[in-house]
């Protein structure tokens, strides 16, 4: 009885909550170990955290300009498609679906399960099978919510953003109190050069940038944003500055209470922190951290489903995934598609190996997207953009991204080679299926299956264009 399309339901507050909720997740509670391990010392790890924050701001500003220039949803995918062409955009989509997104979702899900169960098994570590079971249950809950309602997903994200800030505050405040009382012994010889290994630094940056990742989330839902020309830059700038300050204070608090050996030995740094500094909250903080990870899962599903939705609409993904539920107005097929891959990666994966595995592909394509901004400026100098960043920002960000990707082959050749192979495997798929027109004999059963699934899921094509 009414037009079926994705409504504009994301206000400035919800955009801010989406960014905060996506950035402040499992990263700040699991990445300190990875950053410290690969940077070698407390001082260099703090430098890495601050540098990652500045790089995130550079990338966020580039994406804010892209979001005002290109009016479609889809994030990295649509920016690469519109600026660099269909082949690199399909390779991103291929790597995102088979490597980047399921591995990222598995990392966040495993962190959710670990922190939720940690208080029940302390001081022992939670059993791995139990962690994976709870991780999957949490992921399935978020999947169901995103299939049910856009409004309730956005409301949950707003509520959990408040929980995330509260969780950071409960770590920052006791650490700052101890630091003010003169507990600075863990900062002695903070810049110990003997422990610094240069070829491991890319992995330190991957861990740090993983914690900040999420600054690009509004670009995935651009068509559902209210007043995107104003709200995208405003939400991006305020949220990234907030997270940089929060992360720096959180890491200083970690090191004030825990020594380097304690951080490296801890499977859950925030839990170890509370055990040492604030025992009365030993059962509260892990739950807050788990809820924080829950919010990150929600934001990830919410945004990636829009990538598949847009890719299907652009003809590079099966047409079923550009369809919307007739009553719920959610991209139901796109939301449900990640279910099997995430399940498999949670069952077989380890957090830190998964992090290195997907980081290579993610930062390669983010670098290509900001390179696309430079290309788009040169091709369309006449195009007026309501938000424009100085040219040195996309140039420097692109160079750093691609240089870090190249250096990572020396740091972790096995996982990076797997990620590279995943990207390259998309070449034959593109030229055999996407680039070439399918014959009429092949098309008939494919569309028959799509029609049957469309009836089963009660979904239809979007009736009007909102971009």
From TrEMBL:
Entry-linked InterPro entries: AA/rel_permease1 (IPR002293), AminoAcid_Transporter (IPR050598)
Keywords: Membrane, Transmembrane, Transmembrane helix
Presence of the UniProt keyword Membrane in the record: yes
Gene3D superfamilies: Amino acid/polyamine transporter I (1.20.1740.10)
Keyword Membrane: yes
Topology within the bilayer: Multi-pass membrane protein
UniProt-annotated location(s): Membrane
Recorded GO MF terms: L-amino acid transmembrane transporter activity
Gene Ontology CC annotation, any one: membrane
Transmembrane segments: 12-30, 42-64, 76-100, 120-142, 162-183, 203-221, 233-257, 277-297, 332-354, 360-379, 391-410, 416-434
Protein name in UniProt: XCT protein
Source organism: Thinocorus orbignyianus
The encoding gene: Slc7a11_1
């Amino acid at each position: 009885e009414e037009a079926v399309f994705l409504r504009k339901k994301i206000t400035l507050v919800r955009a801010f909550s989406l960014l905060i909720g996506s950035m402040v997740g499992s990263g700040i509670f699991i990445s300190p170990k990875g950053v410290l391990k690969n940077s070698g010392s407390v001082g260099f790890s703090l430098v890495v955290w601050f540098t990652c924050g500045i790089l995130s701001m550079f990338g966020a500003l580039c994406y804010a300009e892209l979001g005002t220039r290109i009016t479609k949803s889809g994030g990295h995918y649509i920016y690469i498609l519109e600026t660099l062409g269909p082949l690199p955009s399909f390779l991103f989509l291929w790597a995102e679906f088979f490597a980047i997104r399921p591995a990222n979702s598995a990392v966040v899900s495993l962190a959710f399960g670990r922190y939720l169960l940690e208080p029940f098994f302390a001081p022992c570590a939670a059993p791995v099978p139990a962690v994976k079971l709870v991780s999957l249950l949490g992921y399935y809950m978020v999947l169901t919510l995103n299939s049910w309602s856009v409004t309730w997903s956005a409301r949950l994200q707003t509520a959990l953003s408040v929980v995330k800030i509260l969780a950071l505050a409960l770590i920052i405040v006791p650490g700052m109190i101890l630091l003010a009382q003169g507990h600075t012994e863990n900062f002695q010889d903070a810049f110990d050069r003997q422990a610094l290994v240069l070829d491991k630094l890319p992995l330190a940056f991957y861990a740090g940038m993983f914690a900040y990742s999420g600054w690009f989330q509004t670009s995935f839902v651009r068509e559902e944003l209210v007043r995107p020309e104003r709200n995208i830059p405003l939400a991006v700038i305020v949220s990234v500055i907030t997270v940089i300050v929060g992360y720096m204070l959180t890491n200083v608090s970690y090191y004030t209470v825990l020594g380097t050996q304690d951080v490296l030995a801890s499977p859950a740094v925030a839990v170890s922190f509370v055990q040492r500094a604030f025992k009365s909250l030993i059962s509260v903080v892990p739950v807050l951290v788990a809820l924080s990870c829950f919010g990150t899962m929600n934001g990830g599903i919410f945004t990636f489903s829009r990538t598949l939705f847009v890719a299907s609409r652009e003809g590079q993904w099966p047409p079923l995934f550009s369809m919307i539920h007739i009553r719920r107005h959610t991209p139901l097929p796109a939301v449900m598609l990640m279910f099997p891959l995430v399940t498999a990666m949670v069952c077989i994966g380890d957090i830190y190996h998964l992090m290195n595995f997907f980081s290579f592909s993610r930062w390669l394509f983010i670098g290509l997207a900001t390179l696309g901004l430079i290309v788009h400026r040169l091709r369309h100098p006449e195009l007026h953009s309501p938000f424009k960043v100085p040219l040195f920002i996309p140039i420097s960000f692109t160079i750093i991204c691609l240089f870090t990707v190249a250096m990572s082959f020396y740091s972790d050749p096995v996982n990076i080679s797997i990620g590279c192979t995943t990207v390259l495997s998309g070449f034959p798929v593109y030229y055999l299926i996407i680039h070439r027109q399918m014959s009429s004999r092949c098309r008939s059963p494919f569309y028959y299956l799509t029609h049957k699934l469309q009836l089963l899921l009660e979904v239809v094509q979007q009736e009007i264009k909102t971009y």
